[in-house]
């Protein structure tokens, strides 16, 4: 088995035993990227010189001081600053920007032995679930390069699916980690707010936007989350690392007793084939002895709540760019920022009240169920030339993000959630199952996902673009 085909947990074990060096992994990645990336455009910015210099520094330390990752390369989304590396945020405004300091997240990852070697492509400022921008162009789905990889962590998902990464950083506001994971057939995890430290941007108390891990297996995803965890005074929301690692949880063999499954959460249409595939995954759990009930909490206010809070966040972080660089912003961003600037105090109060009501309902729901299962996305991958999904199952959406409701409703209620590969469409395209637990139930998601991964016999191997 080549290094590219190996799991991250196995590579870290080899690194810790001294059987391979970080440089061996970087060499393998560089060769793979040279061959594959031109076909999919997932990793537009490479920094192998910096990576090898970091590897040299790491190897000068005793093994016990090389961190959880011990020299494992990690791809970083191009919204996050890495000192000395180009960071465009997918915008022509920052096309030539070189970061002068790293994000808190990167400082922590590198302290744990992670090595940054590439930046993954993202839509402009992460807005929209189709990874394209005016700086680097579109990222293509490796299962069918005529199709979208979703977004906004599309470059990360494609890099993993094609063997150009073993572990990748992503971020998730309304599904930005989970949607590309589903479209590309890999694992993506949205943690509880505060679980992963980050440099605050605009809104200090932002509970919608989180950073998280992506990988090709549940265990690999858990390993990267362990390396991302830990509190930092520069992020007042950040939490200490848990006493028991997420990797331990993923490998625990824990079996949920009673789970709920819903195709729609009562708030969105869903493609019939997607509903059928995810339903079969839930049925496989039932056949393994888990009680599966078709049910969901009342999330009827999720649309209005999320749209208001999202607009407020964009106004908080991007209003100055609207004033100074309006011509360089895509129409969807302008709409979101202007919607936020037009909000009244009454509308913000209503949204916050709705969010508290929704969270209370979700907590009450989880008193009866260990987990909530849904499709991670409501459609299979769509043509990359379409900016977003405009309709599904006969329902036309009113804006460019409404089709993401099955993901963003979970963001609103501050729950951890994972997209786990659960099957393929008739056209051979991946489908993700969303696994949701109550707030701070991150370890429960990983424990359940490890079990579900074994029940569904999920084995994600790198593919060549097709």
Write up this protein:
The chain has one domain (3-455): Alpha-Beta Complex (Amidase signature (AS) enzymes), CATH 3.90.1300. The protein contains 14 helices and 15 strands. It has helices spanning 8-17, 22-40, 48-59, 104-111, 154-161, 178-184, 218-228, 246-250, 272-287, 302-325, 331-341, 345-365, 405-412, 442-455, and strands at residues 45-46, 73-77, 115-120, 132-133, 137-138, 167-172, 187-190, 210-215, 258-261, 291-294, 371-375, 391-392, 395-396, 417-424, 430-436. The protein has an eight-stranded mixed β-sheet with strand order 6-8-7-14-15-11-9-10, sandwiched between helices. A three-stranded mixed β-sheet has the order 1-3-2. It has a two-stranded antiparallel sheet with strand order 4-5. Strand 14 (417-424) and strand 15 (430-436) form a beta hairpin. Helix 2 (22-40) runs antiparallel to helix 3, helix 5 (154-161) runs parallel beside helix 6 (178-184) and helix 10 crosses helix 11 (331-341). It starts with 7 loop residues before the first helix and ends in an 11-residue tail after the last helix.
